[in-house]
Protein: Transcription initiation factor TFIID subunit 8
Amino acid sequence: MNSPVVKTPGSPALDPPGAPDLAEVNEDVALRAVQRIVSSELRHAEFDTAVTSALHRLELETIAFVEQIFQRAHEYANHASRARPLATDIMLACKEFYGMEIKHLHKFEMLSKKRRLESSEPEPLILIPPPSRSPSPELLASDDEGVGPSVPTTLRMLPHSQFLPPLPPKHTYLRTPASPPRKAALPSLEKKLKNASLVQESLKNLLLATEENADNEDGEILGAVVNWEPTVYPRKRWKLGTS
Structure:
């Protein structure tokens, strides 16, 4: 049985967080994220309160800053024939508009890490249930312990069968359906015989028709040979006159 996994604050995360689904990031979600960023930066700058209009103006300036950086980075990507901007495009855009270098960004990253460590509290232990296992396949019943392994009759007649390894226990076999019995080939054989008889009958009719035509042609030829006299000598014509 699998035991639950214990997750402590110092242990690495089991599954690293992935990118958010774009379908779930709508305008309201993005606006709340910007408000949290602005509020966090104001707290770290030791501001206790802020006017609502000023806070709204800071939010708009933050959104305009991000859009301007993204637009410029996208232009760099288009000049390089890329479908989407890379990190280098964003770095060039930051350097062009605001003169921000990599070392400056690294300093801000270190400050944000320090803030997170200072404000972080020890998290309680979280018990994560183990993943559910797939169901086991259906197995055969176990063998009786007091009965020795039975040797099939098909293996008893083999030479040196005593040196063959024993069969595994029954509970290790998978229950599979028996193969369906083969159907007799009588219908196909009868169909072939029927086709053969039809072909034989067709050939017989064809031969009979051919013999009748041959007899007629032979009769015409023989008749012309027997009555050859009219074709050689012209018919004698009688002249009728007055006496």
Summary: The radius of gyration is 51 Å. The chain has seven helices and two strands. The mean pLDDT is 73.
